[in-house]
C-alpha cells in the first residue's frame, strides 16, 4: 500500500522530535554529541556554573582572583571570572568591572583619578624608591636595576601613580611647593660652624679595561641635578682636563650655577688628584661639590654624571667619559664597580616644605609664609620673634 506523501512527512517529523535532540541546536555555538549534550565552543555555556546547556551565553575572561576562599590546601587567589571584581555580561562576554578595577577580566587596579593627568600609572613591581641611579649602588642596595624583584601574586595587578615633576599626593593632584631650611632650627652645638652637604665625584683618567687606548683627557661629560620637586636639569658639556684642575673646577661650578630657574643658587667646588687604590685604574680626579645656596642648603639628591656618549638625536651632545672607580681582581677577570658619586658630609641644615614656616597652596605651588617670614620657601626672616 502506498502511503500519502503528507503522511510520510509526518512520520519523519514525529520520529525526529521523539528523539531528544540537543537543546536549541546548541544555539549555533557548539556541536551536538550522540548523547544529546552540547559540546560548546570556547567561552560559551550557561549560568554561573558554566555548564554547557544550550551554549546560549558567553563566559567572560578569567584571571587571578583578588580575594577568594581557600581550598583544602589553604591556597588563595585561584582563577576567577572577572577576577571576582566585576559582573559578566553574558551577551557580550565582557566584564563590567567595579569601580577601581579595569582591563580584561578586571585584572588590574586603576589609579586614583587617572593620576589627574600629571603622572603615570605603574604596576607595583615597577615602582622604585630611588631619586637617582646612585641610590642603588650604595652599601644597602647594591644592584643595578631600577626596581627590586617582587614575587607577590599582585605583581601585575596592583598599580599606583608615579607623579610628574612638581606634582604630588596619591593622585598627583597637588602642586608641590619649594623646600627650604627652617631658619629657626636649633643645632646641638651653636659654637661649631654650620655644615653644608658635600658630594664627591670620582673621575678615572684612564679606562682600566682599555689600558692601551688612552685616557679621558679632552673628552666631555655632563652633570644632572634632581631637585626636591623632582625636576631634572642637565648641564651643558664639560671638558675633562685633569692637567688643569683650576679650569675643571671653574667649568663644573659655572655649569651647575647656570642651570635653569636658579635651581642651584649657590655652590663651591674643589678638586684634587691622586692615585687610585690599584695600579690598573691609575690616576683619579676627585671633585667635591658643596651646596651652599638658600634653595639647596639641606640634603639634596646625589648628582648624576652623564658618562655615556651622546652623539646623534640626543642632548647634550657629549663624547662620554669613564667616571667610575673600578676595582679589578688580580687575574683581571672580574670588575667590581662602586658608585662614582657619594655624600661625604651631611648637612646641618634641613629641608622642609615652605621651610616649615608657611603653608603650601597646592593649587598654585606657592608658599604662604607665616608672619615674619618671606621668600619662595619662607626661609628668610623679616622680623625678630
Summarize the structure.
With 385 residues, the chain is mainly beta. The chain has helices at residues 5-18, 245-257; strands at 30-32, 38-40, 44-45, 57-58, 62-64, 79-81, 86-89, 94-97, 101-102, 108-109, 119-123, 159-163, 167-168, 174-175, 179-180, 198-204, 220-226, 232-234, 238-239, 267-275, 283-291, 304-306, 326-328, 335-337, 341-345, 352-353, 358-361, 366-369, 373-374, 380-381.
What's the layout of helices and strands?
Elements: H1 5-18, E1 30-32, E2 38-40, E3 44-45, E4 57-58, E5 62-64, E6 79-81, E7 86-89, E8 94-97, E9 101-102, E10 108-109, E11 119-123, E12 159-163, E13 167-168, E14 174-175, E15 179-180, E16 198-204, E17 220-226, E18 232-234, E19 238-239, H2 245-257, E20 267-275, E21 283-291, E22 304-306, E23 326-328, E24 335-337, E25 341-345, E26 352-353, E27 358-361, E28 366-369, E29 373-374, E30 380-381
Antiparallel strand pairs: 1-2, 3-4, 5-6, 7-8, 9-10, 11-12, 13-14, 15-26, 16-21, 16-25, 17-18, 17-19, 17-22, 20-21, 23-24, 27-28, 29-30
Amino acid at each position: 500500500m502506498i502511503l500519502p506523501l503528507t503522511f510520510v512527512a509526518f512520520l519523519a517529523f514525529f520520529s525526529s522530535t521523539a528523539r531528544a535532540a540537543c537543546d536549541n541546536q546548541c544555539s549555533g555555538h557548539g556541536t551536538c554529541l550522540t548523547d544529546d549534550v552540547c559540546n560548546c565552543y570556547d567561552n560559551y555555556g550557561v549560568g554561573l556554573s558554566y555548564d554547557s546547556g544550550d551554549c546560549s551565553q558567553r563566559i567572560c575572561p578569567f584571571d587571578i582572583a583578588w580575594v577568594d576562599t581557600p581550598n583544602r590546601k589553604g591556597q588563595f587567589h585561584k582563577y576567577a571570572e572577572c577576577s571576582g571584581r566585576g559582573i559578566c555580561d553574558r551577551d557580550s562576554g565582557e566584564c563590567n568591572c567595579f569601580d577601581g578595577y579595569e582591563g580584561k577580566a578586571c585584572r588590574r587596579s586603576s589609579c586614583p583619578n587617572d593620576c589627574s593627568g600629571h603622572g603615570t600609572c605603574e604596576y607595583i613591581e615597577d615602582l622604585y624608591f630611588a631619586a637617582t641611579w646612585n641610590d642603588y649602588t650604595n652599601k644597602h642596595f647594591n644592584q643595578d636595576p631600577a626596581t627590586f624583584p617582587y614575587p607577590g601574586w599582585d605583581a601585575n595587578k596592583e598599580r599606583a601613580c608615579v607623579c610628574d615633576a612638581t606634582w604630588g599626593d596619591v593622585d598627583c593632584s597637588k602642586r608641590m611647593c619649594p623646600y627650604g631650611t627652617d631658619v629657626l632650627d636649633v643645632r646641638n652645638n651653636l659654637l661649631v660652624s654650620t655644615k653644608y652637604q658635600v658630594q664627591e665625584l670620582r673621575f678615572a683618567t684612564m679606562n682600566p679595561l682599555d689600558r692601551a687606548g688612552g685616557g679621558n683627557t679632552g673628552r666631555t661629560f655632563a652633570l644632572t641635578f634632581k631637585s626636591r620637586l623632582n625636576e631634572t636639569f642637565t648641564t651643558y658639556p664639560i671638558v675633562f682636563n685633569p692637567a688643569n684642575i683650576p679650569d675643571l673646577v671653574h667649568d663644573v661650578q659655572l655649569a651647575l650655577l647656570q642651570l635653569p630657574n636658579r635651581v642651584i643658587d649657590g655652590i663651591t667646588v674643589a678638586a684634587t688628584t691622586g692615585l687610585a687604590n690599584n695600579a690598573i685604574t691609575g690616576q683619579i680626579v676627585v671633585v667635591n661639590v658643596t651646596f651652599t645656596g638658600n634653595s639647596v642648603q639641606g640634603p639634596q639628591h646625589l648628582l648624576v654624571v652623564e658618562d655615556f656618549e651622546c652623539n646623534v638625536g640626543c642632548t647634550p651632545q657629549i663624547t662620554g667619559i669613564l667616571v667610575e672607580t673600578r676595582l679589578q681582581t688580580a687575574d683581571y677577570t672580574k670588575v667590581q664597580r662602586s658608585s662614582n658619586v657619594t655624600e661625604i658630609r651631611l648637612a646641618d641644615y634641613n629641608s622642609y616644605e615652605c621651610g616649615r614656616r608657611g603653608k603650601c597652596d597646592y593649587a598654585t605651588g606657592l608658599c604662604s609664609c607665616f608672619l615674619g617670614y618671606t621668600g619662595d620657601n619662607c626661609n628668610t626672616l623679616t622680623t625678630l620673634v
